[in-house]
Write a structure and sequence with these properties.
The complex is a heterodimer of chains A (495) and B (221). Chain A contains 20 helices and no strands. With 495 residues, chain A is an all-alpha fold. The longest helix of chain A has 42 residues, at 283-324. Chain A is globular and about 80 Å long. Chain B has a single domain (4-216), classed as Rossmann fold. Helices cover 35% and strands 24% of the residues of chain B. Chain B contains 8 helices and 8 strands. Chain B has helices at residues 42-53, 72-77, 86-94, 98-108, 126-139, 156-169, 180-186, 213-216; strands at 4-13, 16-26, 31-35, 57-60, 144-148, 172-176, 189-194, 197-203. In chain B, strand 5 (144-148), helix 6 (156-169) and strand 6 (172-176) form a beta-alpha-beta unit. The chains are: A mainly alpha (495), B alpha/beta (221). Chains A and B meet through helix 7 of A and strand 4, helix 3 and helix 5 of B.
Chain lengths: 495, 221
């Protein structure tokens, strides 16, 4: 008799995550509450196919601001990120970077908004700071994985700086350049979304136009945005970079004044927990009450909802990826169909999940459903693209099965591991995004953060942001341990 | 005076002792080949020599170890990285100085690589690649070259050319070689390594490849 095989660790992990997601789904609020969602959807579709580029005369300026924030933010992040990558072996630097990147750029923007108001500094720093933390980590990994063999041929007595310049930097440089381009694309998305909290980028006009029901204007704004991203490899040329950066500095409205006393008050008073600020003899017990009330009434429910939504979105992303990657795989589809697949995936992954969620939320009413759909669509389009590209490297034997048999027997088993690797790699990113979607009214941590800012309770807002950051760091380390236990690796090109 | 002297020393790799009881003296002007089975410890011994020689020696590592992202010029220039200031090195990385290009060109001409001076090393053929690694070692100003299997991936014609150039341009040559005939032809002293020890150390004059058989057999047959 043949003994039954133990399920593989990969299968066990998959089942475990599926089970958790199903439980989360059962307790989730996923109702569509608007009375006639399809009518509004019809109007939106009509607007999408009839874009109106002249609806607003601020379209050009909004685009320029979006580009300017992204360019300056990513440039600064590159400089600081590179510097930090060189000293990434220090534990303090590693922990510091993990901390600054665990706070989403929108949260950074909400903080800087209190300090610098609508000055361009708010937008630039909101992008530069978390991106510097991400870039430092990725650049440090790139340097670590660079070809070390030429080191042995360096003459005895060559200085560390010269050795670094000639042996480690050249191989890493191409990776740095590629990654910077990817970061700039992310920066453009972040920059657009910053408009939703008041900065003068595309998101600002998008929100207004959408709320007013001017769907043709929404369409025009989105089309311009896609064009900018799709043509990035054409307009982003090395010799032109200084021109763009100087242009970005010139175009931004630096004249917006901010007061130093405001900044000082924010840092030394506003963010200090209220009971500590008030003092008095019962200070510590008052602080204890303040803290436990905040943690129990806001942080805890916010965390539960954030984790619940993240788990559903993670598994939904995985399922959707299984459908998305064949759209661009030469093993499964012909050239014409793949062109359509590419276009579809580019549009879906270029749309920031925040904007997708915003649109769906307006169509379907407040529940977790818009967030689940937005997060899984966006992330599945990214992973689907990478996995689809990966299948280009697979060589099938000539007599390999066709159609569904090929998908299940030849392709899926080969891509499953890399797909899980990417999925777990993005887990933390999905969580960060889930928290932020709270600003739109879904009861994740961002909802409580946003409400605290709205009520000018900056002490609460900051504590809730710290809780969010800690949650992020936890998930990141769980994801890393799962990936190393299952030996799931992502390549440099996929980060 | 001897270039290098080992007295009852041992050598290892990653903290593991591989060779012991080493007694070797190397004088300037010698042409030495280390012979023995792969895995016998030739590379370990070669590395020990290189460490002792310091800046006097240029190393040609086993897999050539060129920096893929750089040009032939940059890879060859690396041979003098230790003799120039960081600023000069940085400058040459971004925009090669005319004087240094001229110096590098002089090394490349006899190796038939002049045309390739600003090509990326990824575009080179196997022979050109190996000759670039040699050019880097020749550009190094030391009198000694230490080379680990420098001709392992080229045909015999190119192998002879590389070995002749080495002998002509460097005062002292220390090689690890698995090709016995070439070792006897180009070296005047052979050091045989087997079972973690030096088992043979003699002049190569008059030897035939068959004389080295016992280095390569396990002794059972």
């Amino acid at each position: 008799m043949i003994a039954r095989r133990e399920p593989s660790p990969l299968a066990r992990t998959t089942t475990g995550f599926l089970f958790v997601a199903i439980v989360c789904w059962i307790f989730a609020d996923i109702a569509i509450s608007t009375s006639d969602p399809w009518r509004e959807f019809g109007l939106l579709l009509k607007g999408i196919v009839t874009p109106d580029f002249y609806a607003t005369n601020s379209l050009g300026l909004a685009l320029a601001y979006t580009l300017a924030f992204a360019l300056l933010g990513v440039a600064l992040a590159n400089i600081f990120g590179f510097g930090l990558a060189l000293i990434f072996h220090s534990r303090t630097v590693r922990v510091g970077c993990a901390f600054i990147r665990s706070i989403h750029e929108l949260f950074w923007a909400l903080i800087f908004l209190q300090m610098f108001g609508l000055s361009p500094l708010t937008g630039v720093l909101a992008i530069a700071i978390p991106y510097a933390g991400i870039i430092a980590k990725v650049y440090a990994e790139i340097l670590e994985e660079a070809d070390q063999r030429p080191l042995s041929a360096v003459p005895v007595g060559a200085g560390r700086a010269s050795t670094f310049l000639f042996v480690r930097l050249p191989d890493a440089w191409a990776h740095f350049r590629n990654y910077s381009m990817y970061r700039l694309e992310c920066g453009l998305r972040s920059s657009a979304v910053l408009g939703f909290i008041g900065l003068p980028t595309l998101g600002f006009h998008l929100e207004t136009a959408f709320k007013e029901g001017y769907y043709s204007e929404v369409s025009a704004l989105l089309i311009m945005f896609y064009l900018v991203i799709a043509t990035m490899r054409i307009w982003m040329k090395k010799p032109l970079l200084p021109v763009y950066l100087i242009g970005a500095v010139i175009v931004l409205p630096w004249g917006v004044a901010f007061s130093l006393s405001n900044i000082i008050r924010f840092l030394t008073e506003d963010i200090i927990p209220y009971p500590l600020r008030a003092g008095g003899e019962n200070m510590m017990s008052a602080f204890g009450d303040w803290l436990s009330l905040l943690l129990l009434d806001q942080a805890l429910p916010g965390m539960v909802a954030t984790i619940q939504l993240t788990m559903i979105a993670l598994v939904a992303t995985g399922l959707l990826t299984l459908v998305f990657f064949p759209l661009i795989s030469p093993l499964l589809l012909g050239r014409a169909a793949r062109t359509g697949g590419h276009t579809f995936l580019v549009i879906v992954r270029s749309t920031p999940e925040y904007i997708l969620a915003f649109v769906l939320l307006n169509l379907w009413g407040p529940s977790m459903l818009p967030a689940i759909v937005a997060l899984s669509l966006h992330n599945a389009a990214i992973i689907g693209h990478l996995i689809g590209r990966y299948t280009e490297t697979i060589r099938l034997r000539i007599d390999a099965a066709k159609g569904a048999n090929r998908y299940f027997y030849e392709v899926l088993p080969r891509v499953y591991r890399p797909m899980l690797a990417l999925l777990f790699y993005r887990w933390e990113i999905i969580l960060r995004e889930t928290a932020i979607l709270g600003i739109l009214g879904i009861a994740t941590l961002g909802f409580y953060v946003d409400s605290a800012f709205a009520d000018l309770r900056f002490d609460r807002a900051l504590l809730l942001i710290l809780v969010t950051a800690m949650l992020n760091i936890c998930v990141d380390s769980i994801s890393r341990s799962i990936r190393s236990r299952l030996r799931l690796q992502t390549t440099l090109e996929q980060r | 005076m001897a270039l290098l002297q080992l007295k009852d020393e041992s050598a290892g790799y990653n903290g593991k002792e591989i060779l012991r009881g080493l007694n070797v003296t190397i004088d300037p002007g010698e042409r030495i080949a280390l012979v023995g089975e792969s895995g016998a410890g030739k590379s370990t011994l070669l590395r020990l020599f290189y460490e002792r020689l310091g800046a006097k020696a240029a190393l040609m590592p086993q897999d050539s170890a060129l920096v893929q992202a750089l040009t032939v010029f940059h890879n060859v220039y690396m041979g003098r990285l230790h003799q120039r200031s960081v600023w000069r090195n940085l400058r040459n990385l971004v925009l090669p100085a005319r004087a240094d290009v001229e110096e590098v060109r002089k090394v490349l001409v006899p190796l038939r690589l002049e045309e390739k001076i600003f090509s990326g090393v990824g575009e080179l053929s196997g022979g050109q690649y190996q000759r670039t690694a040699l050019a880097r070692a020749l550009f190094h100003t030391g009198d000694v070259i230490v080379a680990d299997e420098p001709v392992s991936s080229v045909d015999e014609h190119q192998a002879r050319e590389i070995l002749e150039t080495m002998n002509a341009q460097k005062q002292t040559v220390i090689l690890a070689m698995h090709d016995r005939a070439l070792a006897i032809e180009f070296a005047d002293r052979l050091i045989g390594v087997k079972d973690g020890q030096i088992v043979m150390d003699q002049e190569s004059a008059g030897m035939t490849p068959g004389d080295l058989d016992n280095l390569y057999l396990n002794g059972v047959e």
